[in-house]
Design goal:
The structure is a single chain. It is globular and about 70 Å long. The chain is built from 18 helices and 20 strands. By secondary structure, the protein is α/β, with parallel strands linked by helices. Strand 1, helix 2 and strand 2 form a beta-alpha-beta unit. It folds into 3 domains: 172 residues, 3-Layer(bba) Sandwich (FAD/NAD(P)-binding domain); 95 residues, Guanine Nucleotide Dissociation Inhibitor, domain 1; 109 residues, Alpha-Beta Complex (Polyamine Oxidase, Chain A, domain 2), CATH 3.90.660.20.
Length: 501
């Protein structure tokens, strides 16, 4: 029975018992886990975290095969700036940060930063270093790349009247200056055309960035979001882009740490089917999917840390009349495949890197799980990402229309041309179909008004998910999770709270 049927059936069942809890957290992805983590660190433990899956983690979940671990979704985090106190606190606790530099910015633990070679690109039979295809580039291509980099540098240097950056992480700290917000009214492709950028190599790089972070093409990505990708990871004018933190199992390393910190109050295999906000409490119905048993919970507050598209099915007022900010969010579909290899295939040109991208492919290429484990020979896992960039419903239809064998054909057809002997080295291919992988920042979705509407509590129900920001980034999920915890505790009467958000 699928989740929709379980939800509808559970609404018709009389709960077998009633339990009370101070705060119910709905959703065990990075946001919900971050809410619980912040509660724990502030000494508040009257909460329960409900997650449908057998293991919490959301789109940061991971897999294992023997001694190898690998991601099923999010697989890196850029080094945070010192202003992102919530993420700095978490990563320091994990041992991923080891102090500060002369500019007061965090220093990453060397073994957890992506090691060289970091990335390479395949074109016409050969691999090259980096993500911009410099081989064969003309003088005109080089001029346009320099002009684009100068435009990005100008936005890095921008400060509004309140001293805020144009784009920063978390997004809530970015400028609300009219000049910056106006970028949300056009697409990234429009912005490129307005600035005279026509180089196919540069246009490809920008399109790749939009597909990589958002599952959209430049023609459908808000220019605000497109520029955010390039600007937000450079802290000050003249700096290089932030280094990346990564682990063999991707961001599974982070959610594994969070889940361990909150384990006593984490309830998996639990589907919340109904949330009924009242004046003095919130009533919830929770289906134990293992026992097929429905329980009623009464909470003082709820943190809804599941994707907003599920809110219209679960939160009673939204079910009756979904608000515009819920109905208008679009989510992208993704296919992720893990290729289990007995050995590394051969390739011409630049050697195997952590991130391996094909110039003329609809995929994003693959990351190598064993790269961060310092294992350069023998068995490995390639994690291959394929965003379905068409409209949400159309993308989900194509995602589901192709079965496991068909997706394996897509993967092998794409990668075999770039690797000698790949087919002979593949032992198995596992496929994961994400129907609603992340919110997609189309035109109009990143305005201050839209983000404010998505963040606004519904009485005793607070919202915490990356889609509140409008983009599917771990940093945004963590920000809203921590912020929800702090907001709830203040609503409950906490004073003198040392906030991280």
């Amino acid at each position: 029975m699928d989740i929709g049927h379980k939800l509808r059936a559970a609404l018709l069942v009389e709960p077998s018992e009633e339990r009370r809890v101070g705060v119910a957290i709905v959703g065990g992805g990075p946001s919900g886990l971050s809410t619980a983590w912040r509660f724990e660190r502030l000494g508040f433990r009257d909460y329960t975290l409900f997650d449908l899956e057998p293991r919490a983690g959301g789109t940061s979940t991971f897999g294992t095969s023997g001694a190898l671990s690998y991601p099923w979704g999010a697989h890196y985090v850029p080094m945070p700036s010192t202003e992102n106190r919530a993420l700095v606190s978490l990563l320091s606790e994990m041992g991923a940060l080891v102090g500060k530099d002369e500019k007061d910015q965090p220093i990453g633990a060397e073994e957890q930063l992506v090691r060289a070679p970091e990335e390479r690109i395949y074109h016409l039979g050969r691999w090259y270093e980096g993500l911009y295809l410099r081989a064969g580039a003309s003088e005109a291509d080089a001029r346009e790349l320099s002009a684009f980099e100068a435009a990005v540098a100008k936005l890095v240097a921008f400060r509004d009247a309140k001293g805020r950056k144009a784009f920063t992480i978390p997004i809530a700290h970015s400028s609300d200056d009219a000049e910056i917000l106006a970028l949300d009214r056009i697409t990234m492709a429009d912005w490129m055309r307005q600035h005279g950028f026509r180089s196919p190599r540069l246009l490809w790089l920008v399109d790749y960035a939009c597909r990589d972070d958002y599952g959209l093409l430049a023609e459908t990505t808000s220019a605000w979001a497109g520029l955010f990708y390039f600007v937000s990871r450079t802290f000050e004018e003249g700096d290089t882009a932030a280094e990346l933190l990564a682990w063999p199992h991707g961001n599974g390393r982070i959610v594994e740490h969070l889940a361990g910190a909150v384990a006593p109050r984490l309830q998996t295999n639990s589907l919340v089917v109904d949330i009924d906000p009242r004046d003095d409490h919130v009533a919830l119905r929770v289906l134990d999917v293992k026992e097929n048993r429905v329980r009623r919970y009464v909470a003082d507050q709820v943190v809804f840390a599941a994707p907003k598209f599920t809110a219209r099915h679960v939160i009673r007022p939204f079910r009756d009349a979904p608000p515009a900010h819920v109905a208008s969010l679009e989510y992208g579909a993704w296919m992720v495949a893990n290729l289990h290899l007995r050995d590394r295939p051969l390739s011409r040109g630049f050697p195997l890197a952590w991130d391996n991208v094909l110039y003329d492919s609809p995929s994003l290429g693959y990351v190598v799980a064993t790269h961060q484990a310092l294992v350069d020979h023998g068995p490995t896992v390639f994690t291959y990402y394929y965003p379905l960039t068409e409209g949400g419903a159309a993308g989900r239809k194509r995602l589901l229309d192709l079965d496991h064998a068909a997706w394996c054909d897509v993967v092998m057809s794409d990668l075999s041309r770039a690797h000698v002997g790949l087919r002979e080295r593949v032992e198995a291919i596992d496929v994961w179909r994400w129907g609603h992988a992340m919110a997609r920042p189309g035109v109009g979705s990143m305005s201050a008004a839209a983000r404010e509407a998505r963040a606004r509590p519904l009485g005793r129900v607070f919202f915490a998910h990356s889609d509140v920001s409008g983009v599917g980034l771990f940093e945004e999920a963590q920000h809203w999770g921590v912020r929800a915890a702090e907001d709830v505790l203040e609503r409950r009467g906490a004073t003198g709270l040392l906030r991280l958000t």
